[in-house]
Amino acid sequence: MFTGIITDIGKVSRVEMRGDMRARISCGYDMAGVDLGASIACDGICLTVVEKGADWFDVDISAETISKTNIGANGWAPGRRLNLERALRVGDELGGHIVSGHVDGVAVIEAMRDEGGSTRITLRAPGGLARFIAPKGSVALNGTSLTVNEVQGDRFGVNVIPHTQAATTWGGARPGDQVNLEIDTLARYVARLAEAG
């Protein structure tokens, strides 16, 4: 489990295809404190550390994960920057919302505009997921916990404050970018209960 509060920006340094995809991600974490088998959310995707060095870790990414995330759309070429978050530990502050690291689909940035000191971003949700997104609810976008401002059909808006732009990859976001979307787990259960009657 994660919180959607990004704690580092990593960089893809190597990608290999060996049945599954193996990616090496350089980071600022003290890898001596990260066990093999630990989970790290990489752009919102919960991935397992399978090898590590002083300032890097390797992950294996299945074809299923590639097909359901922006890896399939954008690829992970060397140099790509990624939002990173280590798994939540008992006693950690829950500053965002409960995030599983299981991406539901890929949203597309349709528009961006400055609004005060923040940036207002409008995104289009993939089919079937928009009904789980509610104003003032939470979503995880590329692993970042964000509050939904408004929803109109399959489009929804969020504001990204300057701190978030500086501490994550959101400072480099552009219209047309495809981003990993994880809907709020509570919204999923509420919708399921409503369907059950």
From TrEMBL:
Lumazine-binding repeats: 1-97, 98-194
Catalytic activity: 2 6,7-dimethyl-8-(1-D-ribityl)lumazine + H(+) = 5-amino-6-(D-ribitylamino)uracil + riboflavin
Taxonomic path: Bacteria, Pseudomonadati, Pseudomonadota, Alphaproteobacteria, Rhodobacterales
Domain Lumazine-binding: 1-97, 98-194
UniProt organism field: Paracoccus thiocyanatus
GO biological process, one term: riboflavin biosynthetic process
CDD domains documented for this protein: Riboflavin_synthase_like (cd00402)
Assembly mode: Homotrimer.
Keywords (A to Z) from UniProt: Repeat, Riboflavin biosynthesis, Transferase
Pathways involved: Cofactor biosynthesis; riboflavin biosynthesis; riboflavin from 2-hydroxy-3-oxobutyl phosphate and 5-amino-6-(D-ribitylamino)uracil: step 2/2
Protein name listed in UniProt: Riboflavin synthase
UniProt-listed InterPro entries: ATP_synth_asu-like_sf, Lumazine-bd, Lumazine-bd_dom, Riboflavin_synthase-like_b-brl
EC number: 2.5.1.9
Function: Catalyzes the dismutation of two molecules of 6,7-dimethyl-8-ribityllumazine, resulting in the formation of riboflavin and 5-amino-6-(D-ribitylamino)uracil.
